[in-house]
Amino acid sequence: MYNRSLWFWLFxxxxxxxxxxxxxxxxxxxxxxxxTDWNGLRVTEFTGFENYRALFQESxxxxxxxxxxxxxxxxxxxxxxIGLGLALIVTRKIKSNHLLRTIFFMPNLIGGLILGFIWxxxxxxxxxxxxxxxxxxxxxxWLSTTRxxxxxxxxxxxxxxxxxxxxxxxAYLENIPKDLIEAAKIDGATSLxxxxxxxxxxxxxxxxxxMFLTLSMTFKIYDQNLSLTDGGPANSTQMLAMDIVRTxxxxxxxxxxxxxxxxxxxxxxxxxxxxxxxxxxxxxEM
Length: 286
Hints:
globular; 286 residues; MetI-like fold
């Protein structure tokens, strides 16, 4: 028993050290700096909660927070719906299911910056040309308004990440006992009834995992936001991550940006952990 315990700690210590150096220590260090006037080089005075009071009075931060929450809600629902739908398609007995899995997952392998520029070309040039050709005004200047910029970000994110979420649902769908599905068929259950009463309850754990991942990913998006809209027009499509980066590196207000980052972390942590708690309870009830 002693030897097993010793080897356990020998193997886990490097990981704990890396986690402490890369995650825990910088977070604690940044949290302390958020109560100062740190400019990236030195601290001249302790300001208390001044940075936190200021950020809740800043309209740009509030607008970025509201936009990010709206984007996260729509994208999370869309990603899970598409991911589950794709998983149901590729787990059927069709010859091309392995090819389809590869095709659906491939966008996730492309970097966010590259995808942003690709979709910027599609929304601006391709949509613009189609709008001119078919005289559809709504397709012209797709990224020039807040509403269309919002949906442009949603489409890009859903296209990129749906394949990744699909893989999670596939893992659970393929572990559903075939006997249960066959029994439901024999009892006369329709496809919808089988999905509602057999399939969905058994993939509920996948829904919990996917919700957690999609929430954290959509809240933290930066590179797609930067390359697709750059926060425009007039910062109306600027998400929280971009607002924090600009505060730190464009305005050189490091301590103020760190205060925003702390609030951002708390919001994401509370929302993500709350949904995990309620989804776990629902799994038990099912």
